[in-house]
Amino acid sequence: MSVVTQASPAAADQAAPAREWRPPSYWPFVIPALVVVLAVIIFPWVFTIWMSLQEWKVGSPTVFVGLANYLRLPTDPRFVEAVGHTLSYTALSVLLPLVFGTLAAVVFHQKFAARGFLRGIFIMPMMATPVAIALVWTMMFHPQLGVLNYLLSLVGLPPQLWVFNPTTVIPSLVLVETWQWTPLVMLIVLGGLAAIPTEPYESAQIDGANFWQVFRFITLPLIMPFLFIAGMIRMIDAVKSFDIIFAITQGGPGSASETINVYLYSVAFVYYDLGYGSAIAVVFFLLIVALAALLLYLRKRLLWTSQLGSEA
Amino acid sequence: MNPRYILGRIGLWLSVFVIVSPAILFFLWMASLSLKFEIDNASYPPVFFPEHIAWKNYADVFASNRFLTYFTNSLVVTGCATALAMLVGVPAGYGIARMAAHKSAIVILIARITPGLSYLIPLFLLFQWLGLLGTLVPQIIIHLVVTVPIVIWIMIGYFETTPLELEEAALIDGATRWQVFRHVALPIARPGLAVAFILAVIFSWNNFVFGIVLAGRETRTLPVAVYNMISFDQLSWGPLAAAALIVTAPVLLLTVMAQRQIVAGLTAGAVKGG
């Protein structure tokens, strides 16, 4: 790819059949985007890494401090706590949408009237402006006037403090996240269901399998790859979740719902400690990559053991 | 029409109802909040259909002169960021698809994984240094972080599926690469263009995190303006809910009208901004 031959394109077009001369001449199409990507994606990355090695506060001179910002992370209780919040928030925000999204996909895979329209309604939560949604959820969470406590009272449950109590704030935010992102899992799994051949179902019907058996032994194994993709995407988005948490609780009460991303915002743009903020950004990115690698590893392990199981 | 079939149908519709209701009920409640006077919004048990409808809430939102500024800001930022992304992203998607340069997708993957805030720190400094912070330019540029990867990603997928035969025929007839792209490839990929455009618009319009850092008082986009209403100006729910609904209404309309394209784009790329 590195060698760009300057053969006269017109002559080459006449002579060679399609494939050989293709690579070089498509470069002009890519260059404008390459410039943009270099400017707004690659440059910020390189600059962030460099900044993370500096003592860099807005308004004071910068000093090179090596890895000091990184060494500060494990001794910063707020950061350690934020990592814990992020992990529990992420675990719940991956699992719940996976379960509900799969169920919803099984239903949307059936044929019924106005399916397209209803699917459009169903995906509205994930397309709607997060801040606008967060605002309405905040009102619904209100302990005295909120509609959620009223709904609880209808089924005889005691009122909750929702996002105003340190122990229930993360589950409450996960409720919003699940409501918002279950549709994405549904869409991915629905794509998987559409790709399943009909033969296994026909033979299962002949064998007299019931609905649950069909789901457990045919559908579920066949949509596993799609569930994995959905889980991966969900993980990446849940770790980075910002709008909903920030708009509803700003990380509170106290710091009970402060995730890494919210803490990063405070460090960089409230305390203007840009060097330390950059170090958090780098570690945060590495954490996401590590989680993604862990999921990939788990999938390999699972595939391997299930293959072993079927061979034995 | 045996009883078993009918029972199955009833079961299906019941499950459809259960699945769709959280979305429907939420947005209906949002509409209800936005159309009630304070007295109804503060009543317990909650009122769903008020006796008097408070159209005034909407009038209030539009009447505040800032709201129109913020609306224009959102239009300019989303419009420019989407247009620029289409301008550079569509040819790039074409080039990458034709070169089969699949490794370049790694950059897009990194962009997809990176938290939006980590772009903000270096770009914030850069914009400050360039003296651009009082204008909309920083927000337009940083929204490219969201829109460009979406457009490239979706267009790669579309151009990979469009037939090569026509393009090769045009080349043999003496067309330049640019002419082939402009008159052969682009018209065929029109559905893909629509998908990329719609998703770029939605994710740019919805973006919040870039705005809270980069926007000043005059350069707020709508999501930032609504957030500031929560924290400072407004304590009454009616106008707040009205503002929230106005901000997200264009997106919701687009979602229901173009659900086919959106579903196609999301399942193909599973992209999301920020």
TrEMBL record, chain A:
<comment type="similarity">
    <text>Belongs to the binding-protein-dependent transport system permease family.</text>
</comment>
<keyword id="KW-0812">Transmembrane</keyword>
<feature type="transmembrane region" description="Helical">
    <location>
        <begin position="217"/>
        <end position="236"/>
    </location>
</feature>
<keyword id="KW-1133">Transmembrane helix</keyword>
<feature type="transmembrane region" description="Helical">
    <location>
        <begin position="29"/>
        <end position="53"/>
    </location>
</feature>
<dbReference type="Pfam" id="PF00528">
    <property type="entry name" value="BPD_transp_1"/>
</dbReference>
<keyword id="KW-0472">Membrane</keyword>
<feature type="domain" description="ABC transmembrane type-1">
    <location>
        <begin position="83"/>
        <end position="297"/>
    </location>
</feature>
<protein>
    <submittedName>
        <fullName>Carbohydrate ABC transporter membrane protein 1 (CUT1 family)</fullName>
    </submittedName>
</protein>
<feature type="transmembrane region" description="Helical">
    <location>
        <begin position="178"/>
        <end position="196"/>
    </location>
</feature>
<feature type="transmembrane region" description="Helical">
    <location>
        <begin position="120"/>
        <end position="140"/>
    </location>
</feature>
<feature type="transmembrane region" description="Helical">
    <location>
        <begin position="87"/>
        <end position="108"/>
    </location>
</feature>
<keyword id="KW-0813">Transport</keyword>
<dbReference type="GO" id="GO:0055085">
    <property type="term" value="P:transmembrane transport"/>
</dbReference>
<dbReference type="InterPro" id="IPR000515">
    <property type="entry name" value="MetI-like"/>
</dbReference>
<dbReference type="GO" id="GO:0005886">
    <property type="term" value="C:plasma membrane"/>
</dbReference>
<feature type="transmembrane region" description="Helical">
    <location>
        <begin position="274"/>
        <end position="298"/>
    </location>
</feature>
<dbReference type="InterPro" id="IPR052730">
    <property type="entry name" value="Sugar_ABC_transporter"/>
</dbReference>
<dbReference type="InterPro" id="IPR035906">
    <property type="entry name" value="MetI-like_sf"/>
</dbReference>
UniProtKB/TrEMBL annotation, chain B:
<feature type="transmembrane region" description="Helical">
    <location>
        <begin position="109"/>
        <end position="130"/>
    </location>
</feature>
<dbReference type="InterPro" id="IPR000515">
    <property type="entry name" value="MetI-like"/>
</dbReference>
<feature type="transmembrane region" description="Helical">
    <location>
        <begin position="75"/>
        <end position="97"/>
    </location>
</feature>
<dbReference type="GO" id="GO:0055085">
    <property type="term" value="P:transmembrane transport"/>
</dbReference>
<dbReference type="GO" id="GO:0005886">
    <property type="term" value="C:plasma membrane"/>
</dbReference>
<feature type="transmembrane region" description="Helical">
    <location>
        <begin position="136"/>
        <end position="159"/>
    </location>
</feature>
<feature type="transmembrane region" description="Helical">
    <location>
        <begin position="192"/>
        <end position="215"/>
    </location>
</feature>
<dbReference type="Pfam" id="PF00528">
    <property type="entry name" value="BPD_transp_1"/>
</dbReference>
<comment type="similarity">
    <text>Belongs to the binding-protein-dependent transport system permease family.</text>
</comment>
<keyword id="KW-1003">Cell membrane</keyword>
<protein>
    <submittedName>
        <fullName>Carbohydrate ABC transporter membrane protein 2 (CUT1 family)</fullName>
    </submittedName>
</protein>
<keyword id="KW-1133">Transmembrane helix</keyword>
<keyword id="KW-0813">Transport</keyword>
<feature type="domain" description="ABC transmembrane type-1">
    <location>
        <begin position="71"/>
        <end position="258"/>
    </location>
</feature>
<feature type="transmembrane region" description="Helical">
    <location>
        <begin position="12"/>
        <end position="31"/>
    </location>
</feature>
<dbReference type="InterPro" id="IPR050901">
    <property type="entry name" value="BP-dep_ABC_trans_perm"/>
</dbReference>
<dbReference type="InterPro" id="IPR035906">
    <property type="entry name" value="MetI-like_sf"/>
</dbReference>
<keyword id="KW-0812">Transmembrane</keyword>
<keyword id="KW-0472">Membrane</keyword>
<feature type="transmembrane region" description="Helical">
    <location>
        <begin position="235"/>
        <end position="256"/>
    </location>
</feature>
